[in-house]
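Morning!

As promised:
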Amino acid sequence: MLSTIVFLPALGAVIIALFLREPRKIRFTAAFLTFVVFALSIYVFAQVDPSQSPSPFIEKYSWIPTMGIQYYLDVDGLSLPLVLLTALLGFCAVLASWNIQLRVKEYFIWLLVLETGVMGVFTALDFFLFFLFWEVELIPMYLLISIWGSGRKEYSAMKFLIYTITGSALMLVGILVLYFSSPARTFDMLQLAESGAQPALLTSQAVFFLLFFAYAVKLPVWPLHTWLPDAHTDAPTAVSIMLAGVLLKMGGYAMIRVSVNMFPEVASSYSWLFASLAVINILYGAVVTMKQQDMKRMIAYSSVSHMGYVLLGISSMGKIGLTGASLQMFTHGTITGLLFLMAGLIYDKAHTRHIPDLGGLASRMPLMAVVFTIAGLASLGLPTTSGFVAELTVFLGTFSVWRVATILGVIGIVLTAGYMLWMLQRIMFGPEKERFAKIGDATAVETVPMLALVAAIMVVGIYPRLLLDVFSAGIAPIIGRLG
Amino acid sequence: MPELAIWSIFFLPIISFLVISFLLRPFLNDKPRLSGYLAVLSIAGSLLLSFWVLSEVINAPGHRLSLPDHEWAMVGNLTIRVGLIVDSLTAVMLIVVTLVSLMVQIYSQGYMHGDPGYHRYFAFMSLFTGSMLGLVMADNLIMLYVFWEMVGLCSYLLIGFWYHRPAAAAAAKKAFIVTRFGDLGFLLAILFVVFQTDPPTFDIERLHSLAVAGTLGGTAITLLALGVFAGAMGKSAQFPLHTWLPDAMEGPTPVSALIHAATMVAAGVFLVARMFPVFEASPQAMTTVSVIGGVTAVFAATMGLVVYDMKRVMAYSTISQLGYMMLGLGVGAYAAGIFHLFNHAFFKALLFLGAGSANHTTGTFDMRFMGGLRRYMPWTFATLTVASLSLAGIPPFSGFWSKDEILLETLHKNQALFWLALVGVFMTAFYVFRMMFMAFGGKYRGGASAEHVTQHSAHSHALHESPPVMVVPMLVLGVLSVISGVVNLPWSFGLPPHWLADFLGGEAAGFDVNLAGTSSLVAALGIFLAYAIYSARWLSAERVGKLFGPIYTLVYRKYYFDELYEDLIVTRGLYRNLSFALDWFDRNIIDNVVDGMAWLGRNVGRPVSRVQTGQVQVYGIGISLGILLILAAFIIFGR
């Protein structure tokens, strides 16, 4: 079942590559397959009891026995919601690509491969396999940005690639050190965590930071964030959705799964560093966001700010904070995914992303205005949206540990309110402009992902236990290790 | 009383919101009337249920109904619950909210007639009413905060209802952000309370008992109370977070009546009342509340003296009156504060509806272009006169009784604040009758057309009284403005004396004839001065303004608070300096370091790549040198 979820998009890519030529058929195949993946992940989500480990869907086979490499996929409370998120956004990304005209075939091939890569990261529990998936995602990402992007697309794609590969190289060193120091010579992530990894070749601090660097690039943590605004701004809409929605979460997920879970002592002793970096992320990100004139660049910087809350939650090294951080990842995926979707749709229709040129769109596109407003309000953490629950949980978790950092983090939500509402005002409200007199509202295909994401935001906001219980069950064993 | 019936008070308007948003607007867009009827029907249902709740609470032991609560979220050792607190305070607030909301929504059927956003209007109004009802019934701080933000959202949406007007869009944003500043304090108080209680609790009644028992005390309780009060200051537009409320007048007038006069802005006062035992446990917090309230009461009133926009006069009046309520709570007059909230809701809603009615026919809110409306709109004039007398505090109108109780308690507790409040009484009487004389007295001065062409051509033939659907709610509120004081009279009058104070469980304030006489006289003097300037014209308004010169300018420019906040702090400080600087830093420093490293990689790589010549001899030299080096190292360092 998990293999199907992971590889069905890749299989779709193969089918499209070999058998399909007509753009219409390609689109429908991609949409159908990603929808199946989404349906399957809902099924898995409903079936798995997150407090049970391993889950009934575990797939564990010896792959390269001489080196102790396994083909090991499983889901737990931590990865389950992220799998669901990836499937949801994968489907939305295909629908958001409906109007792609350039080299349609290749585009959808790479988009589907991308989904496989991300799914793999969230389900792999063998470190080697994990690394493989981590790297697989790079190739489609590079091509999608550099071919179908806009602006300085080659520069942005290359920047993204170099940043990530630098991180990956360090991570690989870290993984190998762990492998060679483990008595059992294994890449099994659970075993490595349980054996209380005490690397012999390097100090555990060094290994911790080798790994952490890769994740910090991905999240991103200040000052390693500058690839993000460029990559987001120049990527096509669907890729921005995937990038902000799930690729950043790989960083946060790995921080919890690897950094905290395998190195509880090191992580705890450096939690002051994470709390400080988190505050910089939140406030610095928010202040820089305020200045941006490009809609997508603005949302990109707001992601830097919002991922700071993930790091803040992690820095608490406690159950509530880590659960909040995980929930913030899911939440940010849906909210920022929706924001990028809306930015893409507005760009499609108005042909500009320059905020001062926009304005008065609400009367031309009432439905889009409503959805964009909901996304903006969710982003600023309005109650009844998932953004509120996630931020509240993070704050509840960190307030007792890092009081000043939490207070500064809370101030961040006022800044968020400031730039979000200002952006809404400048894009949607005000008098109607002559040049936008002919543009219309979202089409049916565009409406589907919009409403799906709004539903995800509201459902979690009103009934957070749906995810909170799952995440907190997934966090429980990690807390056990933190002592 | 079944739990579901109580929950229904909240659910009915929410259902109305959902039905309008998901059924009527998409599928029956050409029949806007339906959503108006649905909204009125749902709120009427809530009103009936609220009366049921009131009668149940009156008869219940301890004036409270106990209801089970439900788990909403659990994480770690925290459990967040949802549940209802139904006590005397809730019962009173339910009546206020549902009654005013019903009147305003009936009135809106006429006022909003033909607006293209008719569906949207009633959807938002229903959502607001539902959220406000949720707010007054919430039994824990998190749930209260949720609805607190929801009413803020509705306020944002309704101020910006005519979003194509830049002023409306800007005012909506301002309202949201300024109140959110206060909410920071509230949120921090919520986070704080978790670590001061064991087991962690958000439950309001448990916090009460902890505060009363002294388990929660000292600095902790002061911090908690001040955090909560920060939220209340934002919502109730208390100094220095008052700047958003006058701008909020950009919304449709019924919205101002319901949200920005009677209910949402009173939520701050309600919150302090709800957490009253916590405040009482901290003398510092109580002093803060009373001083902020007293200062706001006069500070806002001064600005009300000089503005020409009818709604803004009312906005400053609202801020000022909320200040009186805070003052009352701050000096410990719990019942008097709520009593004033109760009375104020009716007469202030009426004042706004009257302003809307005047605007409906003249097309302007600028009082300089009104005048003489008394002859054309007799009902509006009559009801507004009643409301004005009530606001001014003239006996026997309702406002007199509650204001007097607050003054009396203040006199006992704090002489300085008392004199301040008395000055406020004079100003209140003056500005409200200034408005009455300017708008309703004298001759008609042309309305909107005169405002735009700035020539005095009276189109008095177009003037008419508003339709019955608008006048009837005003009459109902007019009657209430006269009689609502009856619930807490110092003498037995149908009800036992000080019935409301007993019901709320506060101390009865008593009655002092001298004070009542003094305050009435002060109010009458205010009215007389307004008469002298704006009706009899014994004094010229311009000359009086000139007399005060710079002070007049200072007040007229709203003490430059907007300039301070918006221009200096936000635009110059945050945006122009900090935001520009960090953006520059991000692009030029951090990014250049990254690009520099890439450059380094490329340019270090180039000379190194020359080594790779393809000539075996060169490689051979390299290898030999390498071996020699290793050997040397081995001989020197190795053993």
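The first strand of chain B starts at residue 64 and ends at 65.

Hope this helps with the figure draft.
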